Amino acid sequence: MPATPAWPPSSLPRLFVEQALSDGLSLTLDGAPANYLGNVLRLGPGAEVKLFDDRTGEWLARIEEAGRKRVTLAVTRHLRPREEVPDLWLLFAPVKRAPLDWMIEKATELGVARLVPVVTQRTVVDRVNLDRLRAISIEAAEQCDRAALPELAEPVKLDKLLKEWPAERALLFADEEGGEPLQEAAKPGPAAILIGPEGGFTAEEREAIRAVPSARAVALGPRILRAETAALAALSLWMAAAGDWSRPPRA
Questions:
Q1: 120-150: per-residue pLDDT in tens?
Q2: What is the pLDDT of residues 9-53, one digit of tens each?
Q3: For residue 71, is it within any domain?
Q4: HEC-encoded secondary structure of the chain
């Protein structure tokens, strides 16, 4: 006897919405989401989609009306709660647009809880478009089945970050001069990974970071990595050693 296919299928379109979702809610989408459903996918009344709001989890919804500029949906069923993610922050010195966009996308996929742009003495990018980075993060979450978005913080100068550092959060900073292997330093619990700019931290900055009681210098292997590559390598090592990668996939 053939197996009954899962419903709703994983192939249904997924969209993030700002509005808090609840059973029976009717909501109207306009702008890019409406264009995507109505004009790109050409979905009409009766078609089903998945929605998530970064608060209550993921929901099934049915299209009630589909116009050229607006789509009205009825929320019909709660599919799952917002998933728990390890309490891991990624602190990064902003780099140029293309590698930065790629880093934000992949960090979202890997399950980071918070993204913090950090301005260092050698940071070459003086402006960070947070709206663009949030849009990239949302699209990554839609595509990789996340029902939680990483928090995106305002840029902060390194000296201010260190002065206000919470004592209970481990600060693992990738030090080009060496340190213990990150996978050995990673422990469950609140943590942050700090990745420097192109050219690395200055000697003054390195000394200031090491002065933080919870800071530990870590190494990412024998090769020199670009800043965005180092960030993703560090996240992967931490998730494998202390994060949630040992948990079975969601059914």
A1: 999 988 789 999 999 999 999 999 999 999 9
A2: 678 999 999 999 999 999 999 999 999 998 899 999 999 999 999
A3: yes
A4: CCCCCCCCCCCCCEEECCCCCCCCCEEEEEHHHHHHHHHHCCCCCCCEEEEECCCCCEEEEEEEEECCCEEEEEEEEEEECCCCCCCEEEEECCCCHHHHHHHHHHHHHHCCCEEEEEECCCCCCCCCCHHHHHHHHHHHHHHCCCCCCCEECCCEEHHHHHHCCCCCCEEEEECCCCCEEHHHHCCCCCEEEEECCCCCCCHHHHHHHHCCCCEEEEECCCCCCCHHHHHHHHHHHHHHHHCCCCCCCCC
CA nearest to 130, candidates 100, 110, 109: 100
The answer on 61 and 141 residing in a single domain is no
Find the mean pLDDT for residues 164-174: 97
Q: Does the residue 7 lie in any domain?
A: no
Is 200 domain-assigned?
A: yes
**Domain that includes residue 43, residue range:** 14-80
Cα angle 44, 48, 49 (rounded to 5 degrees) comes to 110
The pLDDT of 190-198, averaged and rounded, is 96
- At 11 the pLDDT is 81
Q: Dig out the tokens for 44 from the structure.
A: 């009409």
